Amino acid sequence: MIVSALATAVGVNLGLTVLLASTYSLLRRRPPFVSVYAPRRPYAPLGSWLAAAWRRSEDDIHAAAGLDGVVFVRIFVFSIRVFAVVAVVGVGVLMPINFLGDQLRLIDFTDLPSKSVDVLSISNVQDGSNKLWLHFSAVYIITGVACYLLYYEYKYISGKRLEYFMTSKPLPQYFTVLVRAIPITDGGSVSDAVDKFFKEYHPSTYLSHTVVHQTGRLRRLLNETEIIWRKLKNIKYVPHVSHIENRPKKFLGLFGRNNPVRKYQKRLEDLEENVRMEQSDATRRRASFFIAYVVTSWTSITSELTQTSALLYHLWGSCAKCCKREDSEAPSMHYHSEIPRILLFGLLGLTYSIVAPLILPFVLTYFCLGYFIFRNQLCNVYAPQYDTGGRFWPIVHNTTIFSLVLMHLISIGVFGVKEFPLGSSLLVPLPVLTLLFNAYCGNRFYPIFEAYSTESLVNKDIQEQSKPEMAEFFSSLETAYSDPALKPIQRSSNSDERTAPLLSSV
Length: 506
Prior knowledge:
Shape: globular
Structural class: mainly alpha
Order of helices and strands: HHHHHHHHHHHHHHHH
Family: Belongs to the CSC1 (TC 1.A.17) family.
Helix content: 55-70%
Number of strands: 0
GO molecular function, one term: calcium-activated cation channel activity
Pfam families: RSN1_7TM (PF02714), RSN1_TM (PF13967)
Subcellular location: Membrane
Membrane topology: Multi-pass membrane protein
Strand content: under 5%
Radius of gyration: 30 Å
Number of domains: 1
């Protein structure tokens, strides 16, 4: 990738990012779009969303999105801290060293905009140069900073998780066990067997039981019933149903041929030199691709603000009454898709921090955008449907450890190709030390995310014994669990047109 192409990509994506953010700032204040941009609020928010996102404290995030939301935001906080240090090392030290190298002698520095960005990578450092000691030192510095911050975050979030458990309200699952493979005696039932066993051997802690039935077929029937009911309800609001039949026709796409892969011809006398350069530059070429990929991610993460799909659905529903939503229920946060995406950019930033440090400012910009955008979205758009208490943090920790080890292996290989064998040898203990650090953190903190300690459980029991509302809670445990498929179907009988029965009795 040449410098001018990278500058163009940065300019285009920066312009799109500003455009999307400006569009969001304008639409969010209009009352018709409250259901899209602030479904958790009864009115259109005022003021700057950036300033509001900055002012919100961690307690505000916890109140709005639970501990899962707090831990999700801590991923951005951790990433910003790590890549702020890594960017200072990479951009402030390694990039000037790479730029002043003379390995790529064919590059004319007077015409830099039309040349490749390779001059900013480790490929431009002379083989066997003493300047590679700076890259070697950077590997240890980045690893040390990342491990320190990983330990700090693991400890901090572990404490938050214990605090979350001690201050949480009692839940039925805390007083429930699941029993399987229950033997049945002749003439008895599963319910009788369970009741007899627990009353005989656990009379002081047994309250009641509920038999779980296989209701898969019944659930499917109920789901189909609900879908048909909603369709009928939506059609009821259409003044002229015949207009729905005028649907747009589908267009067939044209299949074009793939561009043939370009074949490179190499002169015989340059074969040995070219092979060596290819082995040195394999990682660097991939880095150029990922730099462009990270730059385009700015637009992707900013589109989270505009909620494009929800906005189009809202506009279509305003025109076609058949698609109008019956309510403006706030959606839930998709942690399962957002967290892997964040971890991918962390992986790219760490693995290419030594080989191609030019990627670092773009990765740091991505995390800064995500920090402000998701703090805003968690408070205004997404409503938590459940709260795991931040149980996904060990995944973040382990993925970062994997990224560090991969960075070590890449650095060892690059130093070997750059004829710096001493540096490669001295890096061999680093991945081992990193894995030992990971094992230590796992032994110390991971059990807190798997199950609560006996000490915590006993302390919580003692704390709850003095609460007067516990008697009412225990009395409600007997009816806490009931299969939704076995509940009677209830429809609103309000005489209002929007809630009137769909089919009247004859």
